[in-house]
Amino acid sequence: MFPDPLPLARSAVDRDALSRQDPELISRMLTSSVAQVLIVDGARIAIERTDSTPELLQISGNDFPAAASNGREPEQFAYLGSDAHNSYLVVDAGERSGDLLNQIQQKMPHKQLHWASPRQFGTALSDSETGLVTTALALMQWHRRHRHCPHCGATTLSIESGWVRQCPIDRSQHFPRTDPAVIMAITDDADRLLLGRGAAWPEHRFSTLAGFVEPGETPENAVRREVYEEASIQVGAVKYRGSQPWPFPASLMLAYTGNALSTEIIVDGVEMLEARWFTRPALAADVEEGRVILPGKASVARVLIEHWYGQPLGTSPNHEWS
Ligand SMILES: [Zn+2]
Fold it and tell me: Which one of 84, 177, 266, 285 is least enclosed by Cβ atoms within 10 Å?
């Protein structure tokens, strides 16, 4: 059975899109004791840790330390939705990321506060926390990267509780981006798995091949094109397996399995340094002896690899505090 949902596809909070239109929503939540504020800084989110269990840091709206008014752009907030107990906001700590966490830490000395990435701890979160984290990171990184109008270059303003940016000059509206990417477990007729070692990855990291879907292309054709580009392997039938957000910064990972029509590997040596066909015993031995380091448990790649293998591989813990 292929895991459903994938680790970062879990969610339990109502996104409540209708409430976003209320222009007073965010300021009202910042005076409320049931509103919870999550804090992000780029691709990291603030967490609190007791022993080895991470939890999202959540500050009541009325306890959130307001930024000093200094004439700069107001802080970027966005409304994430609500559940039966709370409503949720996210703020980008931006320039005061260090100060803000220290300030909050002083108010809760019994907790250890950290910045962390769900790449490291994603599988340890609840369904509710997972949905909040992936939405918060994707949305706030979009705000950081899309401050200017693509038509006229003016600085755009955040409206609709952080879900739209609008140009003050030509009134054009701009919406958060999600970039579809394919990630695929390709097997040959002997049921060997194709894994590659990308140039940008840590040493010994092998993973399934992946790449972005191009304009005018289907995900299925992107699977075939990417595998051919990266390893010169031709792929025939492919099967969709599931999806999960991967907010680093804006990907939606679409998972596929596929059958190779050829087996001779040629890598480009630039993007992909090496690619190999692995049998199950060979991969298990390489992982055991540290010659192959697999991607983290929250990744689709790890799920695809373990699905092919038939059980969990290696001894790496669920959350990795690298
Ligand atoms: Zn404009």
Answer: 84
